[in-house]
User: Which sequence fits this backbone?
């Protein structure tokens, strides 16, 4: 089955055909580093991680780029509020961002270009647009002329024929109801203080939209496969990227535009005005580890709006992860020999097919996860032999290559466990049971339970695992 992805450009699912065989080039809009991202922002950072993991699972060679916006209107305003320098402010939040990506088991992108380190590329892009009659100067700033770019509005399905007059705007963000010539280069003003660059365009700084065009083409070329971001970036940001990039190069900029929906937090839109902005460290403080949070954020389809309940959703994510982890541990403990059972191998084959087909259908995680839980439900665990367990474990490992949660959760569970002490207590308890000293055996079991360890006595020995809790 071919891979199909929902392309915002065409508003339909399309078969994925990369520009270069067996290679995928992807660009993702990263954070604007004036503050910590809130938990809602991380959906836009986890989605490309899933996408990359899936393509690598399918055997593609992926080149992934995520920008870091380290100069824009909001950042400059924050430097004034905190009386700090641009570099001090942005570096603090860049470091925090990288630490939090690690907490969610996000694979590092191959490149994290900073806007401030690519000013020459941006200036060259603006100069090219000026030569082609797509940009003009006004009061020291340079604006893109959207009326001179016939395809403007194609991504956001905006019809300029219904707009009687196009004005200019210098702000980075504005509404879809007001298409305007946007700033490519912003002339210095006193409020910018010492944040400026002296270039052939004059004294000033780049516009936000310009940054992504220049950096994506610098690392991926004038045309590449996939660009992702939240639905809020479709207009004006991504629309303006297309105009700048295709206006300069004359070539198609991005083949597939993929956008993730936002989610509600405890039934409400995440908003500073509502006072419900929640950061990743704050959610971790509630006792949930990164694997549980990752699962809660990826288990819904990336284009579906859902409600993240910080109690019910997180508990459900923990329970689901616990089921997957315990299933893996059960399989790892199987030592029974014997001939393969055709019905068991058939169940495994069917689950593999369902898992793969779900992912190939626009990265449908809910259906892919359902295939795993159906596998757990259908398999007759007592009948499985060691050879069959090995085959099932191989599939679980492959599935987790995409999900990034099972092994990650196990690492969390056992990170604070003194394994030698537990094994010693297990041995003491086994000896007590062998000598029929059941009082001692029960006391040791209680001791293990207080350490968060569950004990299960089986015909071939004693098995132990870390009990649930929030972790």
Assistant:
């Amino acid at each position: 089955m071919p891979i199909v992805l929902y392309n915002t450009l065409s508003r339909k699912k399309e078969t994925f055909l990369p520009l270069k065989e067996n290679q995928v080039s992807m660009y993702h809009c990263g954070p604007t580093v004036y503050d910590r991202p809130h938990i809602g922002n991380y959906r836009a950072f986890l989605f490309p991680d899933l996408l990359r993991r899936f393509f690598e699972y399918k055997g593609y060679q992926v080149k992934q780029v995520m920008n870091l916006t380290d100069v824009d209107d909001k950042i400059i305003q924050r430097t004034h509020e905190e009386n700090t320098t641009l570099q001090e402010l942005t570096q603090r939040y860049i470091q925090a961002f990288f630490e939090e990506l690690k907490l969610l088991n996000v694979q590092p992108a191959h490149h994290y270009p900073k806007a401030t380190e690519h000013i020459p590329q941006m200036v060259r892009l603006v100069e090219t647009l000026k030569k082609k009659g797509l940009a003009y100067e006004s009061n020291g700033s340079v604006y893109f002329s959207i009326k001179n770019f016939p395809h403007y509005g194609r991504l956001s399905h905006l019809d300029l024929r219904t707009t009687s007059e196009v004005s200019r705007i210098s702000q980075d963000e504005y509404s879809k109801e007001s298409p305007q010539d946007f700033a490519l280069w912003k002339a210095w003003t006193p409020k910018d203080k010492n944040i400026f660059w002296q270039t052939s365009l004059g004294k000033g700084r780049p516009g936000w939209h310009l940054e992504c065009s220049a950096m994506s083409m610098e690392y991926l070329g004038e045309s590449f496969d996939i660009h992702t971001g939240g639905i809020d970036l479709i207009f004006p940001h991504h629309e303006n990227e297309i105009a700048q990039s295709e206006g300069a190069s004359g070539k198609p900029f991005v083949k597939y535009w993929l956008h993730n929906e936002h989610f509600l937090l405890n039934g409400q839109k995440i908003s500073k005005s509502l006072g419900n902005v929640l950061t990743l460290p704050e959610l971790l403080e509630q006792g949930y580890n990164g694997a549980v949070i990752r699962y809660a954020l990826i288990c819904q389809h990336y284009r579906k709006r859902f409600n993240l309940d910080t109690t019910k959703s997180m508990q459900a994510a923990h329970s689901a992860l616990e089921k997957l982890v315990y299933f893996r541990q059960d399989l790892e403990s199987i030592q029974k020999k014997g001939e393969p059972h055709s019905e068991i191998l058939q169940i495994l084959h069917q689950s593999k097919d369902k898992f793969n087909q779900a992912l190939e259908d626009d990265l449908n995680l809910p259906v892919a996860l359902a295939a795993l839980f159906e596998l757990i439900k259908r398999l007759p665990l007592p009948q499985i032999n060691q050879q069959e367990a090995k085959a099932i474990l191989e599939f679980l490992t492959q599935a987790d290559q995409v999900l990034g949660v099972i092994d990650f959760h196990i690492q969390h569970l056992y990170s604070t466990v003194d394994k030698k002490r537990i094994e010693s207590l297990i041995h003491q308890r086994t000896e007590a049971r062998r000598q029929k000293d059941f009082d001692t055996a029960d006391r040791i079991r209680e001791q293990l339970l207080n350490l968060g360890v569950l004990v299960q006595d089986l015909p071939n020995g004693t098995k132990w695992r870390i009990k649930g809790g929030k972790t």
Remarks:
- The domain at 280-414 is CATH 1.10.730.10 (Isoleucyl-tRNA Synthetase; Domain 1).
- The longest strand covers residues 181-187.
- DSSP finds 15 helices and 16 strands in the chain.
- The first helix runs from residue 42 to 57.
